[in-house]
Amino acid sequence: MKAVVWHGIGDIRLEDAPDPKIEDTHDAIVRVTSSAICGTDLHFVRGTMPGLREGLILGHEGVGVVEEVGGGVRNLRPGDRVVIPSTVACGVCSYCRAGYHAQCDNANPGGRRAGTVFFGGPEAAGGLDGLQAEYARVPYAHVGPVPLPDTVTDAQAILLSDIYPTAWFGAKLAEIRTGDTVAILGAGPVGQAAIACARLQGAGRIIVVDGVHDRLELARDQHAEVVDFNAEDPVEAILEMTGGIGVDRVIDAVGVDAERPARGPAAEALAEKAEEFDRERDEIAPEQHPDGDTWVPGNAPSLASRWAVQMVAKAGTIGIIGVYPPQVEQYPFGEAFMKNLTLKMGNCHHRHYIPQLVSMVAGGTLDPTPLITRWEGMRDVMEAYRTFDRREEGWTKVVLGESDDRGSGGTSTGAATTAGGRR
């Protein structure tokens, strides 16, 4: 089968890979009809998340059709169409039963203390082959894959594999209440999804901070207020917009690959911290293999966390869903402490949220499809990776599939819809 295979930092390839086989009674083999490229995949190529084995198949977002099941899978059969949660969970342990699927006791070969397992990730995260392939082995298939009704298209479902559950989780972590003013740092795929999720959870105002013009326009299409950190200092802008108080809640959807402003007042204010940011980057990504302007690690790893603490009101809450791998050791704890902030963070418990989101999409409460700005075939995946990595215009969310199954929905506006995406 064809698959996207990691060979090293700065080196991924589309190549032939062995077809997966049933290895455990609770396995399923799924024919992947749609996958996607995520910002987390870029961490592996940029060097900001180490520990992958050479030959690993990348990708943790997938929709497909069940081809084969092990004897212990009693709820699925060949022909069922499913969305695959990005993280893997056993469904038996106390964490899974409490809804903390990302902290499953049994999924990680490293043992109970090892933490989250996800497809296409480092050895420390299970080392499972991922979903950017024609077929995939899905462990614990009696728990993970969520069946899809015919009314939910591949385009809708692929965004429920990781992006929307993560955004929903981020809004939950931020403890959004009715009428809250919420800042979302990052207008990439998760940040865009967080606009709809924050609104559905009661946000009164939503302010999105980013430095990429077309991503800010996509956020504005969803009727979020936008702040371009290359044009103004985002902390000062938000304080002015909120009467000097700051926002009630922040969702950090950026993480370790944050970029410092290239120009404007924020760039000037941060100029003296350039060496500090460079040291952070080199500590986090000691091995880097850029190819021109591709596969370049973010040049300000702690910037999103600093801005989040500065722009939130006293006694506010920050929900962190942007990825910070274990080697990240910088955080403005002192300032957060002095403001009585609540910090909540972590990997999304995908399987906990996906059934509800599938129902919301099937019932018309949520249509995520405008978030898809590119639909590419697997033959074009390498160029899609490079273009997405460079944050080029029109490449906010890239879905991989041989047929463009976006259906007819997605252009309406409303409080419960990701609206206005351009195709």
Automatic annotation (TrEMBL):
GO terms for molecular function: oxidoreductase activity; zinc ion binding. It holds the Pfam family ADH_N. Residues 413-423 have a biased composition (Low complexity). InterPro entries: ADH-like_C (IPR013149), ADH-like_N (IPR013154), ADH_Zn_CS (IPR002328), ER (IPR020843), GroES-like_sf (IPR011032), NAD(P)-bd_dom_sf (IPR036291). SUPFAM superfamilies: GroES-like (SSF50129), NAD(P)-binding Rossmann-fold domains (SSF51735). Keywords: Metal-binding, Oxidoreductase, Zinc. Signal peptide: none annotated. Residues 272-299, 400-423 are annotated as: Disordered. Gene3D superfamilies: Medium-chain alcohol dehydrogenases, catalytic domain (3.90.180.10), NAD(P)-binding Rossmann-like Domain (3.40.50.720). Residues 272-292 have a biased composition (Basic and acidic residues). Its cofactor is Zn(2+). Belongs to the zinc-containing alcohol dehydrogenase family. This is Alcohol dehydrogenase catalytic domain-containing protein. It comes from Streptomyces alkaliphilus.
